[in-house]
Amino acid sequence: MTAATHSSLFPQDSDGSQFVAPRRDADAVLDGLDPEQREVATALHGPVCVLAGAGTGKTRAITHRIAYGVRAGILQPASVLAVTFTNRAAGEMRGRLRQLGAGGVQARTFHSAALRQLQYFWPKVVGGELPRLLERKVQLVAESAARCRIRLDRNELRDVTGEIEWAKVTQTVPADYPAAVAKSHRDAPRDPAEIGQIYAMYEQLKRDRSVIDFEDVLLLTVGILQDRHDIADQIRGQYQHFVVDEYQDVSPLQQRLLELWMGDRENLCVVGDASQTIYSFTGATPDHLLNFRTRHPNATMVKLVRDYRSTPQVVHLANGLLNQARGRAAEHRLELISQRDAGPEPVYTEYADEPAEAEGTARRIRDLVAAGVPAGEIAVLYRINAQSEVYEQALADAGVPYQLRGAERFFERQEVREAGAALRGAARFGGNDSLLDDVVDLPSQVRAVLSTKGWTTEPPTGSGAVRDRWESLAALVRLAEDFVRARPEATLGDLVTELDERAAAQHAPTVQGVTLASLHAAKGLEWDAVFLVGLTEGMMPITYAKTDEQVEEERRLLYVGVTRARLHISLSWALSRAPGGRASRRPTRFLSGLRPGSSAPGTRGAGAAAGGAAERGGRRKRRGPVLCRVCGTTLTDAGEMKLMRCEGCPSDMDEGLYERLREWRSDQAKQLGQPAYCVFTDKTLMAIAESVPGDDGELSRISGVGGRKLERFGADVLAICAGEELAGEDEES
User: Cα separation of 97 and 84, whole Å?
Assistant: First the structure.
């Protein structure tokens, strides 16, 4: 095989001319980078992990890193593979690399890179052409369900398809699916055994018809690289250097593919932020990012915390959200430092009801547009797509153009069109419809008709398409209730006319306007002004976020929303759904201690300063820098600060003591009905096992052992450290 420096195993992009500039041009690439970005750009050997906060220029850092390596003659363009998660991000990376003179570098998604390799090697490994790629798997899943004699409606079909995708990226075979669902605490849309049946039939039908899906692209590539060492060696000869963006979002399957691409080499640079992990329901996990230093003890670790996107006011709010976070990802949170001039303070607004919230939001947006902020630089972000309709209407009434991102326009959604047809039929032939025999008022008529389309008095549990469908139908029910409140004598026919007029008004050509999007769809984007709406308990966190881990992901989702804003940030909530309704709602717990007039979690009384920092500062003694007790380096990572040493420095931990502490913690967690980390985190237990405190004073100096935990658990911990048996242990043994 010819060397990778002279030829490529795979076809080059049209811009793939190989380019090696003289070393004297390399330093020019570093111009304009801040010290941490420059450290990333010049760390070209061995494993590198970049923990990059929102708005800190991570794409700039890694593209300049590649370009610097190419211009310095250290990296050959064709030997670099940069992978990310969306075609948009890969395209942006290719564009920046071209501008920097590194156009021959491959920048692709995991699927795109794997597909090219699979197409190239399939004839050699299997023979013939690669099986046809199934663009959409829904129809085959529907046929699989039918063959299993399981009826799925359109929404269940979409959810079951999503479950199959999750199973495949977590490398779960059909027979193991029910157990995997139970272990991961997922809310399956159907009985897991039924989904396992459908999944097995789906795989069988694919084999029978010689087709593969997108997940198979990764699975088959992994299979070939595992079985054919000669092919693995060819790919490793081609690609010498790897860069992975958004590393917190990798699935177990993608991580396995990356490991096979690399072999035993360590020329890998990963970039990510555990605080932006919001896709765990698809199989993404931040564990690979958080465990990077464990797998690569000699890794170069760089933190990007200079935020160039947002004002100090926005950054202060974002940091405040994460300061209240719990769990493993929270231990590695990054404290952002704004590099921008001061801007306006966050605006917190409480409204009486949802329509008032939407109208108030639309008025503020209209004022911003009038003040010179382009409509395209404004976004309204909500938790679920079903919340969009009231904002669509409010913006339309205010004469503000808008566009929907990541969702169909409300009146174009399939369930809304079906509901409209049913209401239209009932209005025309209602006299002969037994459904309407016992109902008189308009809202009751609408509820009766929509009950045939999936509306119920109580929302379905769990998330996904079934819940989205219900929310859309519930929005129509609420629309009917509001309509009859304004026009008490209105008939079903009048409501249908109103719906048609609204739909017609929204069928105008899409214009550049205010973005309406869910928080998930907003990831990776940014605007001058962001309105975060509907921030009430039950919506943020969402009702079906039951476990501590799920609630923490909801907190991270709100954090992602806040960090989309460059200058203006507005947060709002409504105390009731409809005008005149009971004001029973509460603003999200995530804003406690941050919004004016609220108390931080765990404190009494009100009046906490916005941001909560002043209140906490009055109770807690300010500490100086924390130094590693082994090498003396200043520690900034929360986990390392708990240990009082760098993770890479040698540990003198008493392993036996650590295991006894873990067993004790497990018992305590069961008694309290809480996750183990709520007692003490792993890092705190490690710090205890390393320092072996002998009294309350020594124990209290360990990070993670506050006054409350010292009072509650101190006696037990000190007894364990002293080698004493706790009360009750003899009886249990």
Answer: 14
